[in-house]
Design a protein that fits this description.
Growth Hormone, Chain: A; globular; about 425 residues; mainly alpha
Length: about 425
Amino acid sequence: MGLPFVVLNMVSAVLFKDLGITDAQIAFWTSLIMWPWTIKFLWSPLLELHRTKKFWVVATQLATGVLFGLAALALHLPSFFAVTVALFAVVAFSGATHDIAADGVYMAELSPTEQARYIGVQGAFYNLAKLVATGGLVWCAGWLFERFTAAESSDLAASCTAWTIVLVALGVIMLAAGLWHVRILPSGGGVADNYPPGDTSGSLREVVVAFFSKKYIWYYIAFIILYRLGEGFVMKIVPLFLKADQTAGGLGLTNQQIGLYYGTFGAGAFLAGSWLAGHYIAGRGLRHTLFSLVCIFNIPFAVYALLAWFQPSSLWLVGGGIILEYFGYGFGFVGLTLFMMQQVASGKHRMAHYAFASGIMNLSVMMTGMVSGYLSDAVGYRIFFLVVMLATVPAFVATRFLPFTYDEQSKTKSNDEQS
């Protein structure tokens, strides 16, 4: 689930930076193509009406693999930026569709108690893609760049060749995942049996009305948007900040250094945070842990403000900052995921309603990401990261007054599977 999202949302920023695209263009276009993850609720009910969840998971994984291969070829075209962005937009649609079906499998196969028990694992593996991509793939691009520098006519040509190989490898990974899941993945339920034949439009209307009729739904929508508001600002800018020269306010890191920091320091911290969060929530319940999860998720973004102001060159200081931020991200992210599953998507049409909630969540990230490049260019990295800290404050306030509709332990697996 995570690889297409992270590659389009974060790794593509490094890719286009290496190929000479400006920060403002990168932030705007790589945010705009994330629209499918925001509006996926529009077609999520259709996935409950046609074929099985397993079919959609496998089909979209195979399609995404082919599209990444085409993007690799597109890097060599004169209008590579426009063509690659267009292909990435189709990848986004495929990836968003995949997420709907994969979440549907998770909710259909596991009871609420099991969902809480394994949410740390689910979150760890979803966001492990962030480390594989921003760590492994970016490091490989840097390593390949050094190997091709002597053979190519320019640094741009060497970067193009390096990223071509990386995108091909990414496509192979997605194709292999699709073929593996043909064998191993449970169906996660078939075509929804709750809809009368020939009543598709009425069924879709029922799904939408049911979602917006939920108790406290507008409060929940506001909370979902605010939870990741700060993250939406930093997501596009952090890799650009790490790569920017120190004279421009950045840290002047190479792709290999960025990959090393994310793939070593970040990897262990994130996995530890996700795993511990699952046990923490399972032991005390989401109602009693959510505020602390919001704090742990948002406060570590202060790391980038400190890095921007002091611009340390020490491996230990930069690595320590990334450890703190990634531990907090891994620990706090699972809280929002479980909240959407148990409080927002509970009841009938769980798969479609979870898609609604996650789409709203990504709206926050997408909109802030689109303006983040222009804002950082206007005020500089130092002031930008201070603005990010102010953007996290509303999430703390909203959490203190957040009502819970459903008892976390009251539902059974059989009730979940009715949707």
